[in-house]
Amino acid sequence: MSLIAIAVTAAVVAGMVTAEPAEAMSEAGDHLPSVTSGHRPGPDALYLPPPRAPQLENVGPWQAEPLLISGAHAYRDGEWLYQDFLFDDHGATGVLDPSDPYGVSTNLYSPAAGTFTYPTDEVYRHNAADLVELRITRLDDATALRITLNTLVDPALTAVTIALGDAGSHDWPHGAGASSLAEVFLTTHGGTAELLDAATGEVISPAPTVTVDLERRQLDLRIPDGAWNPGTAAVPVTVGVGLWDVDAGTYLAPQPGPATEDTPGGGSLVGSALVNVGPRLDEPTPFIAGVTMADTAVGARALAPWWRERQQSLQLTAGDLSPFSTTVDFGALGAGGTTDESTLPTSGPMNRIHASRYVAGQGIEPDNVCFAISSTPSTPGTSCHGRYVGQLQPYAMYVPEGEPPADGWGLTLLLHSLSANHNQYLSTNNQVQLGERGEGHIVVTPEGRGPDGFYTGVPEAETFEVWADAARHHTIDTDRVAVSGYSMGGFGTYRLLARWPDLFANGFSVVGAPGTVADQLPSLHNIPLLTWNAAADELVNIGDAEAAHAGLVDAGVAHVYDLFTTADHLTLAGNDEYTPGAEWMGDAEVDRDPSTIRYVLDPTEDSADVVADHAYWLSGLRLADPDAAPTGTIEVHSAAFGNGRRTAEETSPGGGALVGGNAGAITYVERGVTQTDAEATTPADRLEITATNIARVTIDPARAGVTCDAELVIDSDGPLDVVLAGCPGSGIERLDAEDPVALSVLASRRAFEDGTASGATLATTADFADATTGSALASAGPLLLTGPDRLDDRVAAVLAELLEDGADVRLLGGAAALAAQVEDDVRALGFVPRRIAGPTRIETAVAIATTVEQLIGTPDRYLLARAFGTATAPTSAWADAIGASSAAALHGWPILLTDRTTLHAATAGWLDANADDRPISVLGGEAALSAAVAGALPGGSPIARIGGATRDETAALISSELLGVSQSTAGRQLHVHDGWAADGWAWGLAGTSLAATAARPLLPLNADGLAVGSARLLACGVPPATAVVLGDTTELSDTVLQRHLACPVEE
């Protein structure tokens, strides 16, 4: 459980191979695990698209994508960019603050070199001076500079100074306590900016300007050419960030020892008040120092390269920033400027930045302790979020030398130890030897949100975010993926293998143990494991190591167990020699479709962000009785593969010595288990299932090699619901159509095959609004989609099939929605076209509501929905209303539209005239329709908002409140569609006629993640719901459907 220490080496990022520009960012999905059918391997967190990250966005003149490689600089699209390290805001070295968030109680093996600590006032978030990026470009009449910070709550409390030019070395202004080359000093704090002559200290006019963007945490500065014009010169640039003393008008200097509410701590009588400076292109990387827990901790504190701010702390302590002056070629900047990325590292060790979707604030929350070594034992919890709560997170990466193989580099997750951080392995033999083995493997180490996450909760989810981020920047061979780690990282190795076995080819745990997944070791049936443990280990003692080995033996897991007879907990880390382990791991490939699967389901290990209920071709696993036992076990053997089950045998004891490291020869004894090859059998269409405390399992027959008629041989301690996905009786029916028009034809034909349609309604495929509001007419006849220019031939055919001659066909919207040619085509079929339209979609909705009253009768409820989306979220316009279309069609309830923030006059007037005292349901939360809109509705009508946190939660609430269908409704059938795609509205509304005939909810699913509200209605309850899928597999694949059949964990 502890970890490792390291010291400083002369190797620096600048010394790595830099000949070629860094690989452009791609879609991670191209380089992530995939299967032909069934549930995709691993958790949803691995496959989610990157979230919106305001700090990485460009507005105004800025165009270049961020580098996201820390300690690097480059020219992109006429901009010069420097990317700083994250959480390196530790200032100079002074007198220790005993309450330092990076102190010995938390970061014993990853302390900071600087000792600066923030004031205890929450506004600072322990991170208010953490530089993320500096970029510069030239405009027609000014120099533009932009600072991005990791945390920015109150801009008045953070100050930035940028030294520009070379007129000799000068002291920085405002009590910064540092000097560097400078011609001018540009300083900003709050909403003010000033430019000073470095030699005289005089203010230069005209004054620079600054724009503060709190959401993006960016400071956008402009220096008019009249004040300073670099032309096309090569100019030295240095940047420093610190805290600002508002009352004194100077930088806020730290005091020695503890911080107070308004004064930083960890200072000294000398040294700079600045906290984070750059550009730092030569920060030293770690190397192993020490072979025991004690001397390693001492070495870690003395040298402290862990946060890549060792050189920064030395120079700030001396007050000399001259090593950080970096020359910028202003001739390469501006419109038509240069892109030159030759300075970016393309191989070797590096620090990367990724944007996480798991955000709980800004900066650091020191009280977010996931695990503590203390007199009172604690267990890592699945609710763990970790100390680093913001969106931007660091991770370490090693890229092998040379060209990648044709299928890409392999990937190894190398998980860090307790009390360490993501840089634990940077530049070590451990990292390099695992990276350079075989054909080459990218090695990544997530920060894991702090020193003690144990890869549960958010730290577990973020591990897969890091994997996905690596796949966006490099081609990954997803068949060659492995996991390893030291101490806590060894625990994490066991954990990830036991929960996600179909992701990994093998694993290598060093001084680790299974911990809380000890009862899940049978899940490793198809994954070989190498374990190194230390006989004199102070933390993972020999009893823990022997128990782990015994558990693997009992589970029949193929493994090699090496017990190093003279080593303590950190001896192998200090020795830093992993060649035998790297050779054992090799280029092994994942077996995605084994003939025998063993899996232990343990929902207590799940969190709201990561749910492990599937493996290989099994999915949708559900416990029978969680109160009787927290786990369930299942084994399924497919006789279709033509082989029997493998058997396990213990190997004869052996041993040897590990040589070549820093500690000399270290002897070990070796034991283990091998699995014998399965005997060949005659292939048969049969599944043999053994289950304990399992109520339900879904099996993908294609990957299991069987048919829908397979024989099921079941040995279970209770009732077991076995679902063969896609087979009759599986509970899923797909309305397979090539486009929404074809789907509307298919759904309408099924809904009105009894001849009850008195007319029909046509809506355009070009926009959602008319079809949405027209859904209230679907009970009187089919709602059909067609192109805007002419009546689709398929629609013409179904109209002729379902309607009597002379029937009314209602056309929704003006000629821009459905052209006059559509009217002519309807008339030519012998029907009467009747257009319902207003000047805008809102007035058209009002006209449709009037038609509903005339055709169906006075409704007993009205629905109000959002009329427009936004440029950044266009699907938000229809997200909530689609879920109500089935209820609107069933009951004849008009759907009216309005602006998001103001009740439209046309809608308000119609409701005033017609609603009387009948209820009005407002669809969506206040982000969809504001409180002001709800407040402006007629006073005599009961107003009820139906809104969840997401569109699928809203759809689930609509289902319950407007259709009476909830998780406990027996026999419920749901109609599901892709509710996040740009044309998701069309696929959903195309099925409205059919959904309304039996009061079936219309629910959005998310092809890129788990839509919790929809999945809860779909999968939870006894028995689970059946589903009609609106669209073919290109809209909602079988893999997506199987994922949504999982009952989500309640938060």
Written overview of the protein:
The protein is of the alpha/beta class. The chain has 22 helices and 47 strands. Strands 18, 19, 20, 21, 22, 23, 24, 25, 29, 30 and 31 form an eleven-stranded mixed beta sheet that branches. Strands 6, 9, 10, 13, 14, 15 and 17 form a seven-stranded antiparallel beta sheet that branches. A six-stranded antiparallel beta sheet has the order 2-3-4-5-12-11, with no helix packed on it. Helix 10 packs parallel to helix 19 and helix 18 packs across helix 21. The longest helix is centred in the middle third of the chain and has 17 residues. The chain is globular and about 90 Å long.
Give a count of the beta strands, DSSP E runs of length 2 or more: 47
Mean pLDDT: 91
The fraction of residues in strands falls at 25-35%
Total domains, how many? 4
The percent of residues in helical segments reads 10-25%
What is the approximate shape?
A: globular
Question: Can you describe this structure in just a few lines?
Answer:
With 1051 residues, the protein is an alpha/beta fold. The chain has 22 helices and 47 strands.
